[in-house]
Amino acid sequence: MVIRDDCLNALKKMEGESIDMVYLDPPFFTQKEQHLKDSDGREYTFSDRWESRESYLRFMRLRLEEIKRVLKKNGSIFLHCDDSASHYLRLIMDEVFGENHFRSEIIWTYKRWSNSRKGLIPGHQTIFYYTKTANFKFNTIYNAYSPTTNIDQILQERVRDTYGKASYKYDDEGNVVLAREKKGVPMSDVWEIPFLNPKAKERTGYPTQKPVELLERIIRISTDPGDCVLDPFCGSGTTLVAAKLLGRNYVGIDSNPSAVRLCGQRLECPAKTESRLLKVGIDSYKTKTEEELALLNTLGCDVVQRNKGIDGILKTYYRNAPVAVKIQKKHESLQEAADLLCRAGNKKRCSFLVLVRTSRSAGDQEAAVPANMIVMDSPELLLENELSNQCSLYGVKSAQML
């Protein structure tokens, strides 16, 4: 169900203790007009401007008090915010729900590239997790063990001595005691979930849209199939889509008619973008060997992954344009490597191209390279050539002495 209304009015009409979980992504107190356009040119806007901080916090407190009323006794609330007002909202949450009912400060971290501001680039948002009472529903999600985890840590039971130091447990005969079956490592409060990319099939063009993956995780840990999820600032409807995909009931509220209309459209055909990063891990994007990384670092490059023609870009521009660097691969001739670098570098409008030769062959002298390409030998190849020259010199001297 999607309701078009101010959420305070809608909440007051709802039955008490009827909701299992509430997620809200309210205005962040950015003092800005939020607006975006979708691929069809439709513009979505909402105002996040306030007369004062006090008026914003009063707005939030009134709604949080009603949310507490409609939550079931074993219910949970997740409040999404950023550094604009998170420190104030935490105090209000403590007052409304009780400090003793604070459960976690979830950090949603992601990569976003920007050079537009002086200082540290924002790379996370905060989600405050509270429950209505001490008797709350929670479903543990387990992650895989770290690659550095020792097999003994998984299979053997551990105990702590009187000093709190952990050690493996042994039976009376001196044998190691096997641990109970383990499901993995319980999920932490730092969640690395990619921000929606511009081509994601779930992207709607609505400002502040969150990925379905984020909402699914929140819903999984706090509800069961058939439970009811409420989003009083439902916006584009991501919470409702996630709830529907997971077999939960849902109630969404928003005062923006465009948002309500968009929610209805998304719920008719709910879509989720499967994140390749989450599925295969960050390491799958790394295509460079340790030797290549070391060489690129020595040259002062920013490493470029998943590109056949460019391995790195010099951190310093020349003639106000980037300089592309490629390391010759074992299966490539010098000409093949030069062609790949030339095509990729031209597409990126590079001023100069640097090709690092890693092997010599008879056809190298016939290789055609453009005037703006510098061909240099790798340190290993330079050393090999120098040693070869030294051996030749010593060989000549020995012959003359004889």
How would you explain this protein's 3D organization?
- With 402 residues, the chain is an alpha/beta fold.
- The chain has three domains: 232 residues, 3-Layer(aba) Sandwich (Rossmann fold), CATH 3.40.50; 38 residues, no CATH class; 116 residues.
- 31% of the residues lie in helices and 23% in strands.
- The strands form five sheets. An eight-stranded mixed beta sheet has the order 1-14-13-2-5-7-6-12, with helices on both faces.
- Helix 5 packs across helix 6.
- The longest helix has 23 residues.
- The protein is extended and about 95 Å long.
- The C terminus is likely disordered.
Give structural attributes.
402 residues, disordered C terminus, five-stranded mixed beta sheet, 3 domains, eight-stranded mixed beta sheet, single chain, alpha/beta, Rossmann fold
Produce a short descriptive summary.
With 402 residues, the chain is α/β, with parallel strands linked by helices. Helices cover 31% and strands 23% of the residues. It has three domains: 2-141 and 187-278, Vaccinia Virus protein VP39 (Rossmann fold), CATH 3.40.50; 147-184, no CATH class; 286-401.
Strand order of the largest sheet: 1-14-13-2-5-7-6-12
The best one-word shape is: extended
**Average pLDDT level:** 83
Helix fraction, binned, reads: 25-40%
Number-wise, the strands total 19
N-end to C-end Cα span: 100 Å
CATH class identity of the largest domain: Alpha Beta
